[in-house]
Amino acid sequence: MSNSSFEEQIMQGVYVLGRQRDQLATERRKLARQLRYARHSARLTSLSKQYDFGMVFFAAMGAVSLILFDANSGSDAWVNPVLSLSLMLFACGSAVRGRKMVSRIRYVHDRFGKWSM
């Protein structure tokens, strides 16, 4: 085997190893993006569920408080309606935040959904 042929084979091997390294780095970056997308999407979905639960919980508490207001209207009759309306307003705030979270989830899916497998 000639010295020139041996050097060419070595250079071709180095070139192939370089290409494989570049391909592996590209694949690693792609997988890291997909992992970040999956984590972010899961976190947003979890937060959206928490807001939905909060909305239902506080609306129910406000409704129960209003029902109890009819049952015992004594000297402190203003406390129950104020409390129930406050709980219902808090539930409305949770609903608004939850809807914003849903729109953000849609935005993340539209922008980064192509990265998922």
Amino- and carboxy-terminal Cα gap: 48 Å
Shape: rod-shaped
Return the structural class: mainly alpha
Task: Give the SSE string.
Answer: HH
Characterise the protein shown here.
The chain has one domain (3-114). The chain has two helices and no strands. It is 88% helix and 0% strand. Helix 1 runs antiparallel to helix 2. It has helices spanning 3-71, 79-112.
For the structure shown, list the relevant keywords.
membrane; mainly alpha; transmembrane helix
Topology:
Layout: H1 3-71, H2 79-112
Task: Please outline what is shown here.
This protein has helices at 3-71, 79-112.
